[in-house]
Amino acid sequence: MDVAKRANVSAATVSYVLSGKEELVCRIALETRDRIAAAVKELGYVRNQAARHLRLQRTRRICTLLPKIGSPFADGIARDVDAAARRRDYSSLLVMGRDFAACQDVVAQVEAGLADGIVAEVEQFSPEEIELLFAPMIRAGKEVLLLHPPLETSGFSSVRQERLPAFRSIIRRLVADKRQRFAYIRHAQSHDAGRSPALEKILAEHGLPPARFVTGAESRASAVAILNTLLQEPELPDAILVQSDASAVSVLQALARLGIKVPTEIAVAGSGNAEEGALCFPALTTIGPSRPSLEEAVDHLIDRIEKIPGAESRTFAIPWSVIDRESA
Fold first, then answer.
1. Short-list 244, 227, 245, CA closest to 236
2. Would you write out the chain's pLDDT as a tens digit for each of its 328 residues?
3. With contact defined as beta carbons under 8 Å apart, do 169 and 163 qualify?
4. CA nearest 184: which of 222, 204, 212?
């Protein structure tokens, strides 16, 4: 190897230094590292990453699988995965798959060598479907990080958003503010994770009428259409909960166009703590994490890919709280 000859060291020493792995580089004396760096510069050597990846049977790529893209929540996930991957000299690949068949196709491609691991949003699937989708990946030696599984998982690392306590808190606060007629605009294609039963229970405890449950929060247009339907009913809601900040902002805009005062006549609360909610008028009261970041969990996924000792599968819990603003 020309670099080894120029630096008067062994090929193995050069390989250690060029690997970039701290646990290997730290074994080499600083003066030796400087000689190797000088030899690399003099010879114009460029590492053959493709050959290195083939030798290690790794792509140094993470696949991010989301049911949809273009929302602040999805964009934040993609951004966090990419930032963590790049910090570890990996790249990220973003793909979309909403239904089981589409996700199964993506998983099969990752198994076949598309990426070393996958970060997947799975809230829309049952535990049985999750097992069917991702257990083969583990057997194939690929690593998996699940986002928002409906139940605790075994054998997979996961990120769980602790939403339910915050959801209960915003309901109780609205009840304390004398709100009596609740509507809840939910997602159509995800598990409710106990939120609807929690709303029903709290309202019943206070002797209030049952909430009006409607689906369509995943689309701004459908949320506004639902709002227009609710406003045609004999008794208007005085509190509207929306399972998406983006759709909640659209509800606020629609109410403003109709001349309905928020929160005086109708209080509105969202979910997710998206930046858009803080910037709209009135600013959106919501529930969410104060600092939504997946970078620690993605770091852990890469540790597992690289077989770093102690990187056992684990669950990352992200607590949510009520973010008080002007709309409720």
1. 227
2. 577 777 888 777 777 677 665 666 677 788 888 888 888 777 766 554 444 444 445 678 999 999 888 777 788 889 999 999 999 999 999 999 888 889 989 988 888 888 999 999 888 888 888 888 888 888 888 899 998 887 666 678 898 888 899 999 999 999 999 999 999 999 876 667 788 999 999 999 999 999 999 998 888 999 999 999 999 998 999 999 999 899 999 999 999 999 999 999 999 999 988 888 999 999 999 998 876 578 889 999 999 998 888 888 888 888 899 999 999 9
3. no
4. 212
Give the chain's end-to-end CA distance (angstroms, integer). 69
pTM beyond 0.90: no
Q: How far apart are CA 75 and CA 93, in angstroms?
A: 13
Q: Is the peptide bond before 282 cis (omega within 30 degrees of 0)?
A: yes
Cα(182)–Cα(208) distance, rounded to whole angstroms? 9
- May I ask the CATH architecture of the domain 2-47? Orthogonal Bundle (1.10)
* Contact (Cβ atoms closer than 8 angstroms) between residue 62 and residue 302: yes
The residues, ordered by sequence, that sit 6+ positions from 212 with a Cβ below 8 Å of its Cβ are: 181, 182, 183, 184, 230, 233, 237
Helix (H, G, I), strand (E, B) or coil at 215: strand
Residues 112 and 124: their CA atoms lie apart, in Å, by 25
CATH topology of domain 164-270: Rossmann fold (3.40.50)
Assigned CATH for 59-161+291-319: 3.40.50.2300
- Token representation of residue 37: 């760096």
* Burial zone of 50 (CB within 10 Å; 0-12 exposed, 13-18 middle, 19+ buried): exposed
Q: Is it true that 2-47 and 59-161+291-319 share their CATH fold?
A: no
* Cα–Cα separations (whole angstroms), residue 53 to 47, 58, 115: 11, 5, 11
Domain boundaries, the chain: 2-47, 59-161+291-319, 164-270
